[in-house]
Design brief:
Helix content: over 70%
Pfam family, one: TPR_6
CATH architecture of the largest domain: Alpha Horseshoe
Protein name: Cell division coordinator CpoB
Organism: Mesoterricola sediminis
Keywords: TPR repeat
CATH superfamily of the largest domain: Tetratricopeptide repeat domain
Radius of gyration: 39 Å
Order of helices and strands: HHHHHHHHH
Oligomer: single chain
Number of domains: 2
InterPro entries: TPR-like_helical_dom_sf, TPR_rpt
Shape: elongated
Structural class: mainly alpha
C-alpha cells in the first residue's frame, strides 16, 4: 500500500516537472472551473429547495382550500336543512289550521270573550318562543318552548312546539335531548302534520348519536311505509350515504 502511494506520488511529481508552468496555469483554470461549478451547484440546489418549498406550500394551500370548500358545503347543507325544517313546520301549521277550520262547528252568534282571549294568549306565547328559534337563539328557544309545553300542555300548538324544541336541541348538537321531543310527537300526536317529520328527525338524531342500526331501521321504515313523501326521499338519501 505504501509502495503504491509512493509510486503514485513520484509519478505525479514527475508529471508536474514535465509540464512546468503550463500545468500550473491549467490547474488554476481547473480550480476556477471547479469553484464555478460549485457555485452553480449551490444555485441549482437552492432553486430545487425553493421549488420543493413552493410545491409544499401549494399542496398545503390546496388542502386548505379543499378543507374550506368541504366546510362551506357542509355549512350550506346544514343551512338548507334548517330552512327545509322551518318550511316543513310552517306548511304543517298551515295544514293543521285548514283542517281545524274544516272540522270546526258553525260559529256561534256570541262566542265567549274569554275563549278568544285564551287563544290569543296561547298564540302569543308560542310565537314568542318560536321567535328565538327563527333568530338562531336555539338555547333560548329550547328554554322558551319547554316552558310553553309545561305551562300549556293542552295547547293546539303542542305538536309544533315539540317539533321546534327538538329542532332547537338538534341544531345545538344535543341529539340525545332532541330525540325525546320527536318521540313525544310520534306517541302523543300521531295525527299531527308533524308526525312524519318527527319520525325523520328522530332517525337522524339516532344516527348523530352513533346508534347506526336503530337509525337504519328507522330510515327504512320511513322509505317503506311513506313512499313518495319528502321524508321518504330524505330517508333514502341518508341510507344511500350510509352505502345501503
Amino acid at each position: 500500500m505504501i509502495s503504491r502511494t509512493l509510486i503514485t506520488s513520484l509519478a505525479l511529481a514527475g508529471l508536474a516537472l514535465g509540464v512546468g508552468c503550463s500545468s500550473e496555469d491549467r490547474l488554476k483554470r481547473v480550480e476556477d472551473q471547479v469553484t464555478d461549478l460549485k457555485v452553480e451547484i449551490f444555485k441549482l440546489r437552492s432553486q430545487v429547495e425553493d421549488a420543493n418549498k413552493k410545491a409544499d406550500e401549494d399542496r398545503e394551500a390546496g388542502a386548505t382550500s379543499r378543507a374550506q370548500e368541504t366546510r362551506f358545503r357542509a355549512d350550506l347543507q346544514e343551512t338548507m336543512r334548517q330552512l327545509q325544517d322551518a318550511t316543513r313546520v310552517l306548511n304543517n301549521r298551515l295544514g293543521d289550521a285548514v283542517q281545524q277550520r274544516r272540522a270546526a262547528p258553525p260559529a256561534r252568534p256570541a262566542a265567549p270573550q274569554e275563549d278568544a282571549g285564551a287563544t290569543s294568549e296561547d298564540e302569543k306565547a308560542f310565537n314568542a318562543a318560536v321567535l328565538d328559534y327563527n333568530r338562531g337563539n336555539y338555547a333560548l328557544a329550547a328554554d322558551g318552548l319547554a316552558l310553553f309545553l309545561k305551562s300549556r300542555p293542552q295547547s293546539a300548538h303542542a305538536p309544533d312546539a315539540l317539533f321546534y324544541l327538538g329542532l332547537a336541541n338538534y341544531n345545538q348538537k344535543l341529539y340525545n335531548q332532541a330525540q325525546p321531543a320527536f318521540e313525544r310527537i310520534i306517541k302523543e300526536f300521531p295525527n299531527s302534520n308533524q308526525f312524519l317529520p318527527a319520525k325523520l328527525k328522530r332517525a337522524q338524531s339516532l344516527l348523530k348519536q352513533g346508534l347506526k342500526p336503530a337509525a337504519i331501521r328507522a330510515f327504512k321504515e320511513i322509505t317503506e311505509a311513506f313512499q313518495g313523501s319528502p321524508e321518504a326521499r330524505t330517508a333514502k338519501q341518508e341510507l344511500d350515504d350510509l352505502g345501503l
